[in-house]
Amino acid sequence: MIKFSNVSKRYDSKEVLHSINLEIKEGEFFILVGPSGCGKTTTLKMINRLVDLSDGTIYIHDKSIEDYDVHELRYNIGYVLQQIALFPHMTVSENIAIVPELKKWSREKIETRVDELLTMVGLDPNQYRHRKPDELSGGQQQRVGVVRALAANPDILLMDEPFSALDPLSREKLQDDIIRLQQKIRKTIIFVTHDMAEALKLGTRICIMKDGEIEQIGTPEEIVHHPKSDFVKKFVGLQKTSLEKEIKAEQLLSSSLLECDTLQSLPKISATSSLKEVLASLKFEEEVAVEKEGLVIGKIDRKTVIQYLAETEDEKDDKHESVY
Ligand SMILES: Nc1ncnc2c1ncn2[C@@H]1O[C@H](COP(=O)(O)OP(=O)(O)OP(=O)(O)O)[C@@H](O)[C@H]1O
Ligand SMILES: [Mg+2]
């Protein structure tokens, strides 16, 4: 759906992106991750032509972005900026209605859409639509920023570190929201972060960048299990030894509610299985049930394990720091 073909970017004479090639499929949750200054924002902004290319071509639906009317292009690409960027003098509903207004939707259609979107992210329209941004918490403002980008129903959503300004709890809540939202609306999302744990949690595929080049593109599993370079290994914060750590299956149970029938139908492993055994069992299964003394006590899914690995390494030592 979106294709970068030999795309380079120079600022003055300095090249900051070197002949990038990548293809993003429809409905993907595609993550760009990498250290500060590696070119993530530049890559993102080239898609909606906020930044011009120096070389190469970007295609959307097989048509070069140069051949689209720039306004049409931007209306059809939602954009969530890093800083909360609501217009302070406008109400929540006016903020959300900006692109629908530009597209000359009817008043009625706009009002319905605003209410629908607010409801979708858990903000009661009656309570919130007339508020000004400074009458909302940071997390609520960020949610409005996300639905504003969705207002005119774009096919593509660009998100540049949308949650980085939030405290860890609000951040986790919004991450869960966006996963749920994506399952419902099936947009093509390109999401920038420099947080590997966030990348692993959200992404269907992850593109790791370094110094204006792509180091590796792959699913979260591929990146964790088969890092292509030392840089990727370091960035993921995972060393092989962590796979041998003394963690048992029962410490990895996912927190979702137990449904006995579903659990019984899953392949089973013992509560005392090692992390290595757990990973082996998840190689071909999305989730497995955990058995202790003949009783099923819960389940483990792949995402939980991957997140767990990323997080513990993160806390254990600051390997990420050394990459910056
Ligand atoms: N307008 C500009 N003029 C000159 N150089 C720029 C400009 N915008 C970005 N750059 C340079 O291009 C490189 C890539 O910047 P970019 O903003 O894409 O990085 P990033 O990966 O998004 O970093 P961060 O994680 O800090 O947001 C950097 O070296 C930056 O200094
Ligand atoms: Mg950036």
From TrEMBL:
| Native organism | Priestia endophytica DSM 13796
What does the record give as the reaction this protein catalyses? a quaternary ammonium(out) + ATP + H2O = a quaternary ammonium(in) + ADP + phosphate + H(+)
Instruction: Reply yes or no: does the keyword Cell cycle apply.
Output: no
- What EC number(s) does its UniProt record assign? 7.6.2.9
Q: Where would one find coiled-coil regions in this protein?
A: none
How does the record describe its quaternary structure? The complex is probably composed of two ATP-binding proteins, two transmembrane proteins and a solute-binding protein.
Note the superkingdom of the native organism: Bacteria
Q: Does the keyword Membrane apply?
A: yes
Q: Which residues form the ABC transporter domain?
A: 2-236
Among PANTHER family, the record links this protein to:
OSMOPROTECTANT IMPORT ATP-BINDING PROTEIN OSMV
UniProt similarity note: Belongs to the ABC transporter superfamily.
Keywords in alphabetical order, please: ATP-binding, CBS domain, Cell inner membrane, Cell membrane, Membrane, Nucleotide-binding, Repeat, Transport
Any single Pfam family the record assigns to this protein: ABC_tran
What SMART domains does the entry give? AAA
Annotated protein name in UniProt:
Quaternary amine transport ATP-binding protein
Q: Which GO terms describe its molecular function?
A: ATP binding
Q: Write out the annotated subcellular location.
A: Cell inner membrane
Tell me how this protein sits in the membrane.
Peripheral membrane protein
Q: Which NCBIfam families match?
A: proV
